[in-house]
Amino acid sequence: MATQLGVSHGLATLLLLLICLSSAAVAAAGRPVARQRLDVRTHLKRLNKPALKTIKSPDGDIIDCVHISHQLAFDHPFLQNHTIQMRPSFHPEGVYDESKVAKPDSNKQQKITQLWHVNGKCPENTIPIRRTSKDDILRASSLKRFGKKKHRTIPHPMSADPDLINESGHQHAIAYVEGDKYYGAKATINVWDPKIQQPNEFSLSQLWILGGSFGEDLNSIEAGWQVSPDLYGDNNTRLFTYWTSDAYQATGCYNLLCSGFIQINSEIAMGASIFPISGYGGSQYDISILVWKDPKEGNWWMQFGNDYVLGYWPSFLFSYLADSASMIEWGGEVVNSEPDGQHTSTQMGSGHFPEEGFGKASYFRNIQVVDESNNLRSPKGVGTFTEQSNCYDVQNGNNGDWGSYFYYGGPGKSPNCQ
Ligand SMILES: *[C@@H]1O[C@H](CO)[C@@H](O)[C@H](O)[C@H]1NC(C)=O
Ligand SMILES: *[C@@H]1O[C@H](CO)[C@@H](O)[C@H](O)[C@H]1NC(C)=O
Ligand SMILES: *[C@@H]1O[C@H](CO)[C@@H](O)[C@H](O)[C@H]1NC(C)=O
């Protein structure tokens, strides 16, 4: 059992790339129960690093403050001698402000933040990590799939194969650009708590930074908010990231659930609940996400809001994205498992159609891309795509305040969507 870390002793290169798949993680299905229990325990031990401080969040989460150099990323053999980059060498919004990384700052507390903050903060030189529970793992279809998306969930507008889309059960309402080299993307998204009909469904709103064809080697970096009962055990709206370099097969995961993303920020926990949430006809709360490629080191950085540089995905994780992205997408995705043979009532965005507009529909505003000169600019030639506009729709626009924006979402099942 303990040999799953044998990869770090220099097995085949292929294995090195599959660090997320410890031998403990391979094919739990069909094994004797006692063995599976041991596998789960071993996997939990790998994921949950010893904490210097632990904070209990009102939503039931346990946040472990783990020393920055003890995070899971450094179990990766390619990162054994890695020197952590404590700041990006380049920021597309101009002069880089040191205070964005980790310094606790009382001025920030008024802004949208994470629920666990009400019960404490992580000390300097630690990062907050949402502790994985045994139940989290047992909800997954297998140990191997825990923390991973199912295959082929990326909308591919240009060659949308209706059969494939409907078969996979994933539905999208997105805006996108392609045909250029992109070095990042930004958006401000308002945050909602869409209802999920079945625990195995989810609803998310995110941006995708895509490289390669839509084949087996698709590279993707993703970030946004999601409601996923399977992944988290509740209906809370949570900040998430995802990455893969092989179309969701062996590499990559949500948040910090495998070696990959290197976090430097002590205030924001991946996978933690976002607070507060927008109300229908009430106050609107939005989050900003910026992902960009550092032209010097090649790493892909992520910033949350104006203040929090979270960390980076090292360039070596990727093939196409080691150079640049070929497509950017922004928007919503839900799983439609067609319970009872009918369309799911799982909501996307606010659960209301774009027509309802501000205060009622979900939006992405000031969507931007980082161009070949490393400048943030409004994207040109934005397209929109949805599989079934009678279930979830998207409408884009442009104005002075919001730049390039769109409203998206819908209720799912209705008289017009069965
Ligand atoms: C890390 O450093 C050690 C000692 O210098 C060296 O033997 C090893 O090959 C290095 N590992 C990597 C992945 O560069
Ligand atoms: C998916 O299936 C639905 C219902 O069967 C159908 O109305 C819709 O047109 C299909 N989507 C696409 C993109 O063909
Ligand atoms: C999530 O919401 C659904 C209804 O939308 C409810 O049936 C379910 O019990 C909720 N799950 C949890 C864990 O609260």
Automatic annotation (TrEMBL):
<protein>
    <recommendedName>
        <fullName>Neprosin PEP catalytic domain-containing protein</fullName>
    </recommendedName>
</protein>
<dbReference type="Pfam" id="PF14365">
    <property type="entry name" value="Neprosin_AP"/>
</dbReference>
<dbReference type="Pfam" id="PF03080">
    <property type="entry name" value="Neprosin"/>
</dbReference>
<feature type="signal peptide">
    <location>
        <begin position="1"/>
        <end position="29"/>
    </location>
</feature>
<feature type="domain" description="Neprosin PEP catalytic">
    <location>
        <begin position="164"/>
        <end position="418"/>
    </location>
</feature>
<dbReference type="InterPro" id="IPR025521">
    <property type="entry name" value="Neprosin_propep"/>
</dbReference>
<dbReference type="InterPro" id="IPR004314">
    <property type="entry name" value="Neprosin"/>
</dbReference>
<keyword id="KW-0732">Signal</keyword>
<dbReference type="InterPro" id="IPR053168">
    <property type="entry name" value="Glutamic_endopeptidase"/>
</dbReference>
